[in-house]
Amino acid sequence: MKVTVWNEYRHEKSEEHIRAVYPEGIHAQIASFLKENGFDVTTATLDEPEHGLTAEVLENTDVLIWWGHMAHGEVKDEIVEKVYERVMRGMGLVVLHSGHHSKIFKKLMGTSCNLKWHESEKERIWTIAPNHPIAKGVDETFTFPLEEMYGERFDIPEPEEVIFMSWFSGGYVFRSGCTFKRGLGKIFYFRPGHEAFPTYYDENVKKIIVNACNWACPVSFGGPLSAPCVAPLE
Ligand code: ZN
Questions:
Q1: What's residue 124's pLDDT?
Q2: Cα separation of 101 and 115, whole Å?
Q3: Rounded CA gap, 171 and 185, in Å?
Q4: What is the pLDDT of residue 228?
Q5: Quick one: 176 exposed, middle or buried, by C-beta within 10 A (0-12, 13-18, 19+)?
Q6: Cα–Cα distance for residue pair 45/21, rounded to 1 Å
Q7: pLDDT tens digits, residue range 114-126?
């Protein structure tokens, strides 16, 4: 399976305390544990030509992982359109944390994807769909001493499945792991992963992202994806 990890890669370059957590960038940390799990992994970042997402790269991607935050507006609309079209044809998409406000996620959802937000506090995640493939081997509950708070209501369409729920020490709750299908593409949104915290080193988080790639990977299909005019079948 071919996975492309896309990261905006700005915080890590501009802020020392974030570089200390992810010296090579969030994408490099995610790529490293995906490689350990046997995936064929490449990375792409905002400041590369075409944001690293050329037609060739997208065509050779089974699952795209998306992390962005401060520069959603700099992602070119024509690249968003290409990613969207590729999802329609079956590419899996895993959207992480502040990617909830990325152009591609909002386009796929068709809603504002707004949420409540504030600075860090303790987060407890509950696995509420333990029989889902994305929850395989994940603890029933696990905590982060500090994560950024996202609270309901999260303005998304009704998810197909909600796999993880978060509780925050300040009293807010959040649907932290949601699945959707758009066209032939499978989409998973996963909440944790603020850039200032070592969330992508956590064993449960690593398992969830690995499982999500396996779940979102397209299956091969024996027929044409669309055929606007066909002859009657015999
Ligand atoms: Zn954040």
A1: 98
A2: 10
A3: 34
A4: 80
A5: buried
A6: 18
A7: 999 999 999 999 9
State if pTM tops 0.85.
Answer: yes
- Residue 145 Cα to ligand 1 midpoint, Å, equals 15
Cα-Cα-Cα-Cα torsion 138, 160, 98, 185, nearest 10 degrees, comes to 100
Q: Is the pLDDT at 202 greater than 90, yes or no? A: yes
Question: Ligand 1 centre and the CA of 16: distance in Å?
Answer: 16
> 217 alpha carbon to ligand 1 midpoint, in Å?
26
Give 105 Cα–ligand 1 centroid separation in angstroms.
Answer: 16
- The residues whose Cβ lies within 5 A of ligand 1, an ion, are 98, 148, 194
Give the sign of the dihedral formed by CA 123, CA 194, CA 69, CA 26: negative
Distance CA 66, CA 9 (A): 11
Q: How far is the CA of 12 from the centre of ligand 1 (A)?
A: 13
Q: What is the pLDDT of residue 101?
A: 98
Q: What is the pLDDT of residue 161?
A: 98
Taking the centre of ligand 1 as the mean of its atom positions, its distance from the CA of residue 96, in whole angstroms, is 10
